């Protein structure tokens, strides 16, 4: 496959801090919650790619939300207050006219974001900044292979929602068990392979690698996208390269790193 088929477009966005209010909470599975937020200035929000990531700022233990400001030297927090907990999320449902934005939270190990998501109610607030930029992947290919664990499901679901009916997509998704599987709506023809850890810790084994051996995945006119734990993502990418896939057709991102909190590694070329 020629590299022109997988040509990337990089888009930069101005950073703006926004305060959002919870309008709706939905349980998508046993471990994935969807929050719909409203915001007075979401009409200017910009997200050009399905795997964009923005920074979310959470209230402190007292329920106070201290947001930074964008200055000449970048993002600056108010003096005299502790910085809020920050995590990164993929914007999913985007309604610029109605000024609504959806984020999907994977409920896993205890942390400030998971704690907030478990107890959040309509009317609660968070802050967001970004996305800083987008890496736009092609939309005119025949085949798409989307691979990831719970943390990648929001991006996978957004990608599927944007694919045309002329495309085919194969999803390989790792979750704990069948209760964690989610709907994958798309106009495209979608085949899903769910890999279950069945109580084992995430990234304690290479759960998705064995599943790949039994699949007849396309090698031409295809874009492969991988996102999960850092070492798992690298192993999965190497499986594709060793199997003869063009390196330009295989994108991967580290959405988390085993043993490291609040981690994110930018996408790799």
From TrEMBL:
PROSITE patterns the record matches: FAD_FR (PS51384)
SUPFAM superfamilies: Riboflavin synthase domain-like
Every FAD-binding FR-type domain range: 15-138
Pfam family of the protein (one): SIP
Signal peptide: none
Protein family per UniProt: Belongs to the SIP oxidoreductase family.
The protein, known as: Siderophore-interacting protein
Natural source organism: Vitreoscilla massiliensis
């Amino acid at each position: 496959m020629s590299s022109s088929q997988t040509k990337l477009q990089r888009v930069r966005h101005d950073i703006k801090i926004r305060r959002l209010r919870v309008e709706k909470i939905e349980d998508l599975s046993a471990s994935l919650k969807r929050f719909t937020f409203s915001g007075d200035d979401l009409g200017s929000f910009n997200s050009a790619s399905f795997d964009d990531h923005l920074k979310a700022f959470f209230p402190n233990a007292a329920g106070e939300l201290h947001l930074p400001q964008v200055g000449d030297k970048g993002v600056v927090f108010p003096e005299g207050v502790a910085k809020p907990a920050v995590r990164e999320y993929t914007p999913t449902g985007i309604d610029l006219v109605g000024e609504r934005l959806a984020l999907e939270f994977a409920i896993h190990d205890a942390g400030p974001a998971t704690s907030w998501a478990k107890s959040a109610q309509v009317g609660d607030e968070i802050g967001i900044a970004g996305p800083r930029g987008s890496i736009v992947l092609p939309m005119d290919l025949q085949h798409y292979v989307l691979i990831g664990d719970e943390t990648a499901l929001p991006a996978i679901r957004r990608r599927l929602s944007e694919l045309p009916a002329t495309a085919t997509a194969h999803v390989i998704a790792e979750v704990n068990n069948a209760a964690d599987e989610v709907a994958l709506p798309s106009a495209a023809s979608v085949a899903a392979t769910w890999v279950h850890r069945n109580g084992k810790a995430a990234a304690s084994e290479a759960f998705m690698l064995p599943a790949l051996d039994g699949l007849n995945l396309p090698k031409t006119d295809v874009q492969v996208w991988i996102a999960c734990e850092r070492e798992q993502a690298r192993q999965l990418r190497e499986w594709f390269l060793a199997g003869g896939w063009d390196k330009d057709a295989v994108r991967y991102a580290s959405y988390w790193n085993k043993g490291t909190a609040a981690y994110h590694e930018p996408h790799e070329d």
